[in-house]
């Protein structure tokens, strides 16, 4: 091979099984066409109730068909990317760009400092030249407890980093490593490093529990004096501390190797200024880091997403540093995976099929969306620069500018960059950095980058790049998805609507793919109609589906069976279990009837000016009883919530509908077969919904633990369901 011959650093391959997927999709589309023909041809001519319920069901089926078509088009040409990190090392050696890593936290009570420390340490332990690695923590809680934890992390990193490099430790989070790894033979350092970590963890957790920094520790670092001027976490000056200065020759580990730079930032907050939540924190980090390290590549992670793969940086650089295509890419997105999932993923948090199949479809049409964590960004792209086809980026030279100021001087001069007023009359939050004004700031930011002609890529290595903490209660899950769904819908209804904002900027398939996620919330009404109306019509005696003996039942049966059978096959192929798929279907129903519904109402209220933008942090802590029930795969209810009122009412409603159907079949033996023939599909739908809701019935009537459904929810749901049935019958 000639020296100047181009050898790509990554390869693009077609996803396996795409031909089968296309055949099944085409057959389902044919079945949908027959269903539409049936709805039009057999439109009821008599009875007002029959006509309106038929119209409602027809509209619901049209929406489901449209949404299915959206997701199918997005997956039509799915691809996977294969990076070659050995080629990267052969070609560039140690001539690699600087990497700035951003970790964001907001509340020491919901996001414990001990967890944040593990994430930070895992980021510092990458298999990458430490002098080119800088880790920044944004503490939007402005907590001296988090600052203290970072000091502990800075000290422990002197032992942890050489241990990781010597023994090729993965995962690089001390907590995850010592929890999952058994003590290796002939490794004398193992017990001592574990003991040092446990002692550090105990000090951090004790300090957090007491909510007070011990006096002798308070005097050890000048940074603690900053809290003498802090009024509250929403009213304080900028606190910027360079805890490890990677330029300092004395900043070395116990073996004399250089350490990465470590920086703590609590940006200025004042009650009269909007701080723009995580987007504002990220933008402050972009500006601060540009003066301290100015790495051309930025990795951002949530504080619970520790690094699980020591090669993740090199994987991303295979994309950015490819000589022929690398300059086209603005960001590289890794999957959002979790390390606390149960065997059967009780809450359906794994996004298994979405990340293994659907996102690869986006990748083939311009690139995946930015999901807010586990993403490597090109600094220029994130800061508003437009892609220019003939412009070449030399990542090795972009960060060669050395900052000569002392750390203490840098701390003072950079504070203004994180002040409340710095962004006034600038394009920050509009054209530069993360976009403001949306709960899903990540989605709209990624879309903006792509509309500036940058491409993005999805990398899913065999070993997960990052692992985080999934919700372990049902309410946490529903609230989290409400926020995500609300953010997506607000994007769709804003000037950033992909269909309009992306016109002539990104491919049509990519715009449609964005819409598939932006319109999550719009599924709520059609789903609610399908859950409620057929059940009530069954009690009323109104037929909504063809008779079992009619040939028109075939398209309904085929579409339902083939869609779910293929869905199950995909889920199993992606590494799931049958029970995991059942749980995934259950959560799909729960989210559509609660989270999506509330997200829709909240968005409408915001558009009308009756609601303000808010950012809800998902708690990363739980008591021992809840964790135990989660490990046993018991759905956690335990508290009152309007969402639980809806779930319980719908469950009881379908239970009553099923009882009513069984009564009709069994009480009139002579008419039983006729009833089954006429209402067979409606009865089957009710029974399927009853099966899905079995955990709800257990929580309502049988469970005695603290995770059961509260009595008030039980009483209200029974009353609402009986009232609905009474009104339907009469």
TrEMBL record:
GO terms for molecular function: cellulose synthase (UDP-forming) activity; cellulose synthase activity. The chain crosses the membrane at residues 20-40, 52-70, 517-539, 637-659, 679-701, 713-729. Mn(2+) binds at residues 278, 302. It comes from the Eukaryota. The keyword Transmembrane applies. Belongs to the glycosyltransferase 2 family. Plant cellulose synthase-like E subfamily. Thought to be a Golgi-localized beta-glycan synthase that polymerize the backbones of noncellulosic polysaccharides (hemicelluloses) of plant cell wall. This is Cellulose synthase-like protein E1 isoform X1. The gene is LOC107935226.
